[in-house]
Amino acid sequence: MESQLVFLSDLNFNLDVWKRELKFQESEMDYFEEKLEEVALRKLGSEVDIQLEKFQNKIIREKDVMGHLRHRIRMKKRELAQTKFEDGSEAKFHEKQVLLREEMKTFIKMHYQLKEMMMDFFLKYL
Fold first, then answer.
1. What is the Cα Rg of the chain in Å?
2. Which of 104, 30, 98, 33 is nearest to 68 (CA)?
């Protein structure tokens, strides 16, 4: 029972870290949106406008995914809080945690790819 309690505490820690990561990335996207607006105000032509629109669409999609992941994290935390530490629950949580972890890894990888593309764009047009 005590090892299960430690395991569930580790899961809760991971969820808290992911929640903070998403919050940071969302604030970062808000900042990038402001910078995109600055570029838009410069009226640099239709080619730049097309790139701006693509970035804006990617930010909107990324925020949707962040909302989905935050919801999954909240549900997982709620599920952990309601656990009665029954036999076999540790394996069930671990399996679900692995799926969420893989989603987070994929999201973080894609986030940083988008961030790099935007930074290159800003270097060129800001």
1. 19
2. 104
Whole-number Å distance between alpha carbons of 34 and 103: 27
- Distance (Å, rounded) from C-alpha 95 to C-alpha 90? 9
pLDDT classification of 1: cutoffs 50, 70, 90: very low
**Structure-block tokens of residue 82:** 């309601």
Token digits for 87? 């036999």
Query: Is the separation of the CB atoms in 11 and 81 below 8 Å?
Result: no
Q: Sign (positive/negative) of CA torsion 80, 82, 85, 87?
A: negative
Sequence-ordered list of residues with C-beta below 8 angstroms from that of 114, at least 6 positions apart, any chain: 58, 59, 62
| Closest-CA residue to 11 (of 77, 69, 68) | 77
DSSP 95: H
Residue 64 has pLDDT above 60, yes or no: yes
Decide which of 83 and 92 is more confident: 83
* Per-residue model confidence as pLDDT tens digits over 4-43: 444 567 788 989 999 999 999 999 999 999 999 999 999 9
Give the whole-angstrom CA distance, residue 115 versus residue 32. Answer: 9
